[in-house]
Amino acid sequence: MTAHPTNTLRIASDVRLGKGVKLHDFVNLYGCEIGDETRIGCFVEVQKGAKIGARCKISSHSFICQGVTLEEGVFIGHGVIFSNDRWPRATGADAGILGDGAWVCQPTLVAKGASIGSGSTILGGIVIGENAMVGAGSVVTRDVPANATVAGNPARPMNPPSGN
Asked: Which CATH architecture has domain 1-87+104-157?
């Protein structure tokens, strides 16, 4: 991991960092795994149970929650948000605040070589296939096949440019 002159990183003792990981200021990591040579930009949070593969690039202001797995070589643009609960609630029927065991984490997989454009939101329980491309600002509500390009809200398949 690259050293920092100031103490602007919050890395819990249960984080597993691979070799050559580069972290920028104001990163918050806890209970996660980060693969070799991955780069994480400023103001990124990676929660417990998240797994990030080798040689990924995660741009600033992104949120990677519990249950998210990024395979090798994944690109995450600026301000990408993952979610892991399709039916979130703060309180239960008794109006008491819900704890960790009161919801079901819906895992998300972003396969090898996929790219997610800046400002996208990825719902829980999604698989984004190998080398897929998610356009900037998209809201991904369904699985994305390998090698597909999707964009929009909700994200839909895009036709490749002419000549490809």
From this structure: 3 Solenoid (2.160)
